[in-house]
Each structure stands twice: as structure tokens, then as C-alpha cells.
Automatic annotation (TrEMBL):
Family, similarity comment: Belongs to the adrenodoxin/putidaredoxin family.
Organism domain of life: Bacteria
Cofactor: [2Fe-2S] cluster
Entry keywords, A to Z: 2Fe-2S, Iron, Iron-sulfur, Metal-binding
Stated name of the protein: 2Fe-2S iron-sulfur cluster-binding protein
SUPFAM superfamilies referenced in this protein's UniProt entry, alphabetically: 2Fe-2S ferredoxin-like
2Fe-2S ferredoxin-type domain span: 1-104
Length: 105
């Protein structure tokens, strides 16, 4: 399953991920810069903040309140912000485009 991470300078990192991984674990396994995942995916640290490309937001489940409150504390928060650890990769997400926030680099 192809995932595209794009940093704030426009550099694209295309990786192959497996179904059942999260956008956070796929990023850390492939050493994508800016995704630390300090809490191990427990929706507790906010270091896996990503901004989903507008063409893909409608294909994801919506955030729960815990995720939203953590995201609101991150500097680049906007309406397409998500915690990458809360998004499980499925076949439907093949080709997804995810932006990396500038202040997380
Ligand atoms: Fe900590 Fe996602 S890895 S909130």
C-alpha cells in the first residue's frame, strides 16, 4: 500500500506499508523525518501530527475528542490535522498523501 509523505519544503517520501499498520508506525519504520511517535501510538504525545491532503480527508474516520484536544496543542493545527497513530492503513488508503507539519521537523 503506497503512502506519500510530503514535508513542508515539498520533498516527497513514498513508502510501501502493510494493511494494519498506522500512518505513524509506517513513517517511523521508514525513518520519515518529523514523525517521532514518542508515546508509541497511544494518542498521548502529539509528535505524530500530520495534515491530510484535502482529497483524502473524507475517506478517513473522524477524530475522537482525545485526538482533537491533543491536536489543538500542536503549532500547525488546522481542520485537516490528524494524529498519524490513530489512522490504520487499509487498502482503500493506497496512494494517500499526507503532509508533515513544519514545526515538527
Ligand atoms: Fe503519540 Fe501519536 S504517537 S500521539
Amino acid at each position: 500500500i503506497k503512502i506519500n509523505y510530503i514535508d513542508h519544503t515539498g520533498s516527497t517520501f513514498e513508502i510501501g506499508a502493510s494493511e494494519g499498520e498506522t500512518l505513524m508506525s509506517a513513517a517511523t519504520n521508514n525513518l520519515i523525518p518529523g514523525i517521532d511517535g514518542d508515546c508509541g501510538g497511544n494518542c498521548a504525545c502529539g509528535t505524530c501530527h500530520v495534515i491530510i491532503d484535502e482529497n483524502w480527508t473524507s475517506r478517513l474516520d473522524s477524530q475522537n475528542s482525545e485526538e482533537i484536544s491533543l491536536l489543538q496543542m500542536t503549532p500547525d493545527f488546522n481542520e485537516r490535522s490528524r494524529l498519524a497513530c490513530q489512522i490504520v492503513i487499509t487498502k482503500e488508503l493506497h496512494g494517500i498523501v499526507v503532509n508533515l507539519p513544519e514545526h515538527q521537523m
